[in-house]
Amino acid sequence: MLRASERRVRAVARTLRTPRTASWVAEETETTTKTAQKYLDQLVEDNVLQKTDRGSQTLYCVDQLMSSYREVATLQREHDREELADAIESMRARITEWEAEYDVESPSELLASVADVDTPDEAERRREIAGEWDHLADRLAIMKTALKEYDWATDRDEVPV
């Protein structure tokens, strides 16, 4: 059974997209630095976090490669091949619509176009779409991997009888 401090540290650790110190995590989770470091190091051993030294500081952040592997596996377990293909097609269509509507080729180009609009509402709309486009581009890569490796993964995921 996990202690309350361990649960809090693990919950915060799984959200670390920016490298943070054990003392930062301790402050966020109302634990001691020693306790936070203990649980963070366990998560490093479990390949959930990465640990790097920057100067005199030890920093922790989510292991993006392992996180991506887990996400691909989850997609493969929760969706069949057709659902993955449909989702990819939908994402591509949405991006194609934005490219045509704004005559741009990337989210950064769309964001740069904010300087050319006259109304705050349109500027905000373009910012939101650029953010969503960035997100879809990231998701698209994960979804494509899940579909491409579907047979390989599902063959290995079966429980032998």
Structure description:
With 161 residues, the chain is mainly alpha-helical. The chain is 69% helix and 9% strand. The chain is built from 8 helices and 3 strands; from the N terminus they run αβααββααααα. α2 crosses α3 (33-45). It is flat and about 55 Å long.
User: How many angstroms separate the termini?
Assistant: 31 Å
Elements, N to C (H/E): HEHHEEHHHHH
The number of helical elements comes to 8
Strand content: 5-15%
Helix fraction, binned, reads 55-70%
Low-confidence stretches: none
Pairing-aware structural class of the strands and helices? mainly alpha
Q: Give the strand order of the largest sheet, numbering strands 1, 2, ... along the chain.
A: 1-3-2
Radius of gyration, taken over Cα atoms and rounded to an integer in Å: 21 Å
Largest sheet: 3 strands, antiparallel
Number of strands: 3
| Overall morphology | flat
User: What is the mean pLDDT?
Assistant: 88
Question: What layout of secondary structure does this protein have?
Answer:
Blueprint (H helix, E strand, L loop, with lengths): L3 H10 L6 E2 H8 L3 H13 L3 E6 L2 E6 L1 H15 L2 H22 L4 H6 L7 H29 L1 H8 L4
Antiparallel strand pairs: 1-3, 2-3
What attributes does this structure have?
8 helices, mainly alpha, 3-stranded antiparallel beta sheet, flat, 3 strands, 161 residues
Short account of what is shown:
This protein is mainly alpha-helical and 161 residues long. It contains eight helices and three strands.
